[in-house]
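Need the bound structure for fe (ii) ion, inputs here:
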Amino acid sequence: MTSHTVDGKTDLPWSMDAIRYSDIARDAVEDDALLFQIVASASFIEITSDLYTENLIEYFRDDPELVDWLAQHWEPEELQHGAALKRYVETAWPEFDWQRAYAGFFAEYSRCCSLENLAPTRALEMVARCVVETGTASFYRMLAEAAPEPILHQIASNIAADEVRHYKNFYYFFRRYRASEHPGRTAVLKTLWDRAQEVDTEDAYIAFKHVFRVSNPEAEFQPADYETFRTGVRRMGREYFPYGMALKMFLKPLGLAPAIGRMVLPSAAAATRFLILR
Ligand SMILES: [Fe+2]
Ligand SMILES: [Fe+2]
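Answer from helper R.:
Posting the output first, comments after.
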């Protein structure tokens, strides 16, 4: 695979400069409000990645291998996800004032959510990161499959591949810390479960709210609008969400066969339902 250099520092596995945004079949997407809301919300969350990288790097400051990967690969790749999706939004839905909506999102989000709760041990924090990457990898896989035109399919596929690689890296570091910290299976399961509950809460809601406000200036945002959005995403998920992949990734830190995992968790569907928004 070729790699691309940004500012001479970072090798990225793909470059948004190679995406042919001018080829977007706009008529295939311009009237798709749900798709617009999904892609715009995702762009806000991804482009804000650096806000919560800092305390993660701080937490692992005496692990140079992990810090180096986070700073040189993980963060720049997440930021490119945001930038690539932003350009897609600006090209496919040019009437949307991305900058203004993002400013509203950022003001609210940085006030309430910039400091993520870190897990009590390093091994468990790596488990939590695996959950987040499971969620993003399967979300972008879904988006790639649901995309009504090839440029969005390409962007979402590229991002999904990055998120799977992020998962593999966090899983590698999880195994490394597991060897020294020996977290119990119950603690791992609790971390999986707790993080799964949190995944689609604040940031997706705030992102959607600001996307909605700027794209519907005549309407007053109501929580019901978010519910409508979620219903639409769930409908998309029923058709395109990669449940098998998500379940396998989600359960892997437990070291159980998926068949046993299904019995351990209250239900496989409940375990993966959370993944649908991120
Ligand atoms: Fe990402
Ligand atoms: Fe990621």
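Comments: Confidence is low (pLDDT under 50) at residues 1-6, 266-271. The chain has one domain: 25-277.
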